[in-house]
Design goal:
The protein is α+β, with helices and mostly antiparallel strands. Among the domains are: 83 residues, Beta Barrel (Lipocalin); 80 residues, Beta Barrel (Lipocalin), CATH 2.40.128.50; 204 residues, Muramoyl-pentapeptide Carboxypeptidase, domain 2 (2-Layer Sandwich), CATH 3.30.1380.10. 24% of the residues lie in helices and 24% in strands. It has an 8-stranded antiparallel β-barrel. Helix 3 runs antiparallel to helix 14, helix 4 crosses helix 9 and helix 16 packs across helix 19. The longest helix has 19 residues. The two termini are 25 Å apart.
Length: 802
């Protein structure tokens, strides 16, 4: 089918399509605030003139936001005891009426932990808490499934993510939209087994910081949000910051956006996490700039003693004296030989970075209203930190690197499967192209390969960050100094039978867990972006890998009495099995809004929209007249379609001659692989599009083309098709069926099996090489280049000249 690309979105969510929101993004960025905090003099501090850096950053941010489609972005620079500059770019609201600024409020995710740990240290100074006493001394009811481990866990271990407990609590976890209270969240840990022995290994845990928050409440006698508000936020002048929803604050909060590898962005959910002390903070970059001044000991209000603050900023040590990545809450690392402290925040629809060089008294805070962009923000922050250091040392600023799409001819030559160790799925990478995008599937993430504008070198550059550089020839790729050799392009083997019923979607609309197969190994795609290979422990039990978000934890699939999978317990969180699309061999059906006779009456009385201008004369050509070996399954000439209605009196397929000839070339080229094209639909009279529209319920309108605009099928320049095996004449199975109204139809839908995705990609590449473009929501729908040159048609098949 042909859908309206300007109104189409993921129907189960009913959120605005991100491409609509981004119409006019260039204008939005042009209108965005310049990077300053007041008069130009505000960017000059003592003898340090940051104005050139600020202008360079502004140019970089505008360019990067347009390329990566970032809705809004705010940044503040801090140096020499003051806020040097702050600004916003883009618009903070979906209606694009309010420009973002340094005062725009964002959800800042895990930066919450730093405020919680400051509150903890205040109570330690007062003698109400002790970092090295067991948690059960202040919270006697706290426990996990192993009593011995429960008794050994200390507050210090929780602050340094060394307590060995699960990342997420069964109740109130990152996925849980029910907004339970803090006590219920912590109480749910009682049945969770230890992941590691306390103090033995770093295991990042939102649940652990929630325990700290509850300890703060117990010691202070007030709620965690109330204590932090009175003893941390108010003294530091953080007037646009809160752990609780506040209507006055929400008026200034940016609209958050989510996205996935296969779909445009959609509005982020707004529920508060049950692990509130670990992730519920709202704040602005200007407020976090005040916090950074406190961290550097330059804020006029002293809310912690120097010794306590210094302890927070020093990395902990292992039992054999090796430094840990965390101090008390703060992540501690190195930046060009300088100590860097801070934290990132990633929460639904938002990404934030707080980066401080305390020994140099400089900091940068940046936030965006798009999920999954922390590494990209870190790149901007690194440019700012490097620039401030250069200004301090009277050095030239390093010019930023820009990139552009890889030329299509080069992208085509790169497509394929590579491995640094054949037979090991974890060391296998896939390169594929779609339109002007060259994509790399490697390890945890799907990345985009682009070409440096200055040198032409290939480099990874996308919302996940920049780098590394990629070298290639016809037989290998070099990534991160690892060499990957091109493998055979033969179809992957079928998935193991025992895994078939595990494949699918689990969980919620706002956060879906995918179980899929890649290169012969079962994988989990969790939190939209993270691919993790799974190791089978027993029939329905698998282990996460020894890295990433959920290392040390497992997935357990549960079945009902009939043996059907009902849910998976992944890292102690229950994800219910989702019904997606239609079962194999079934055709999606709708309940028509009007009877068929009425639909025909309305269509016969209507006329296609008037189109002015010059058009090429129609030359509709029957595809089988050019090559009789092309197979047909013209669904709309039967009742085997989503309307359960016959629309065409003849099962024939027509297209404008250039499109028909291009499709025949694809069909003949595919014969080298013993494959061919099977056509579901081609030219479609406008009256049929009108009937589709009038029959479809309003909540599904985005799945059909609006007759007021017409369809590329109506112009004879769109084909719906798939592959068939020339020997068996069987249709090749794809990730979804034809005309399936679900996300499985998206050309980049990540689920299914490697074999299904292989054939889907093979079809797409073959068609796009011949001058077609796949429609972004349907793997089977291809538009021929130049479709705009043909007028909307309404001739029935029987009236088309032979």
């Amino acid at each position: 089918m042909n859908h309206n690309p300007l109104s189409r979105h993921f129907a189960s969510r009913r959120f605005p399509a991100f491409q609509n929101w981004f119409a006019g993004i260039a204008l939005a960025l042009m209108a965005s605030t310049s990077l300053h905090a007041g008069p130009p003099a505000a960017s000059k501090t003592d003898d340090h003139d940051y104005r050139q850096l600020i202008e360079q950053l502004s140019q970089t941010i505008r360019s990067e936001m347009e390329q990566k489609q970032i809705p809004s972005f705010s940044i503040a620079l801090v140096a020499d005891g003051k806020v040097v500059s702050s600004a916003g770019f883009g618009f903070q609201d979906a209606d694009k009426t309010t420009p973002a600024s340094g005062k725009t409020v964002y959800r800042v995710g895990s930066i919450s932990k730093l405020l919680t740990d400051v509150a903890l240290m205040q109570l330690v100074e007062q003698g109400e808490l002790d970092l090295d006493h067991p948690v059960q001394k202040v919270l006697p009811e706290f426990k996990i499934a192993d009593a011995e481990h429960s008794e050994k866990i200390t507050l210090r271990q929780l602050t340094q993510h060394r307590a060995g407990i699960v990342r997420e609590s069964p109740v109130g976890n990152y996925f849980d939209p029910t907004e339970p209270n803090l006590k219920a969240t912590v109480a749910s840990l009682a049945d969770t087994p230890p992941v590691y022995a306390p103090g033995s290994r770093t295991k990042y845990s939102n649940a652990g910081v929630s325990v700290i928050g509850l300890a703060v409440e117990e010691a202070a006698g007030v709620s965690h949000p109330e204590y932090v508000q009175q003893h941390v936020l108010e003294p530091l002048g953080m007037t646009h910051t809160s752990f609780e929803k506040n209507e006055a604050l929400l008026e200034h909060t940016a609209d958050g956006w989510m996205w996935g590898y296969d779909r445009p962005a959609f509005a982020a959910p707004e529920f508060l996490l049950g692990t509130g002390p670990a992730g519920n903070l709202y704040s602005s970059v200007e407020d976090l700039a005040q916090f950074s001044l406190f961290v550097m000991g330059q804020h006029p209000e002293k809310i912690l003693e120097d010794a306590s603050l210094n302890e927070m900023l020093q990395p902990g040590e292992t039992s054999d004296g090796k430094p840990l990545p965390y101090g008390i809450g703060f992540r501690v690392s190195d930046f060009q030989g300088h100590r860097r402290v801070g934290h990132g925040g990633a929460v639904y629809g938002f990404s934030t970075q707080l980066e401080i060089l305390p020994d140099e008294n400089i900091a940068v805070i940046a936030a965006s209203s798009l999920d999954g962009t922390n590494n990209w923000i870190t790149r901007i922050c690194n440019q700012a930190l490097e620039g401030m250091l250069a200004v301090r040392n009277n050095q030239q600023l390093t010019p930023p690197v820009s990139t552009e799409p890889v030329p299509r001819s080069r992208a085509r030559s790169l497509a394929g499967v590579y491995s640094s160790m054949p037979g090991d799925a974890s060391r296998t990478v896939t390169v594929d192209w779609i339109g002007d995008r060259l994509l790399l599937w490697k390890g945890t993430f799907q990345r985009e390969i682009r070409s440096r504008s200055d040198t032409g070198e290939l480099v990874l550059d996308d919302r996940f960050g920049f780098g590394p550089r990629i070298q290639q020839d016809q037989t290998y790729l070099v990534i991160d100094d690892a060499t990957y050799t091109r493998l055979s392009n033969a179809p992957p083997p079928e998935i193991r039978d025992e895994w078939r019923d595990l494949i699918g979607e689990y969980g919620w609309d706002h956060n879906t867990l995918y179980i899929l197969e890649r290169h012969g190994q079962l994988h989990a795609l969790i939190e939209w972006f993270y691919y993790y290979p799974l190791t089978q422990v027993s029939q329905d039990r698998f282990a996460f890998p020894d890295h990433g978000l959920y290392h040390g934890e497992e997935l357990i699939f549960n079945r009902d009495d009939s043996g059907e999978i009902t849910e998976v317990i992944a890292a102690q969180v229950a994800f219910q099995k989702r019904e997606v699309g239609t079962k194999a061999g079934e055709t999606f059906k709708i309940k028509r809004e009007l009877p068929v006779d009425k639909l025909r009456e309305l269509a016969d009385a209507a006329k296609p929209p008037h189109e002015g201008g010059n058009f090429r004369p129609s030359d509709l050509t029957e595809l089988t007249s050019l090559d009789p070996s092309i197979e047909l399954d013209i669904r709309y000439a039967t009742t085997n379609n989503f309307m359960d209605t016959v629309f065409y009196q003849q099962p024939r397929a027509f297209a404008q001659r250039p499109a028909a000839e291009a499709a025949v070339k694809v069909h003949q080229e595919l014969a080298k692989q013993n494959l061919g094209l099977l056509i579901y639909d081609a030219y479609r009279p406008w009256r049929v599009t009108k009937m589709f529209w009038d029959a479809t319920p309003s909540e599904m309108k985005n799945f059909v083309a609006n007759p007021a605009q017409g369809s590329r099928h109506n112009r004879g320049c769109a084909l719906d098709l798939t592959l068939f095996d020339r020997t068996t004449q069987e249709v090749i199975p794809m990730v979804s069926g034809y005309d399936e109204f679900s996300a499985r139809s998206f050309p980049l839908y990540p689920g299914g099996t490697q074999r299904e995705r292989y054939y889907r990609g093979l079809l797409r590449r073959a068609m796009e090489t011949a001058g077609f473009q796949v429609y972004e929501f349907e793997w089977w729908h291809f538009d021929f280049d130049g479709w705009q040159q043909y007028r909307i048609g309404n001739l029935p098949f029987e009236a088309i000249p032979n």
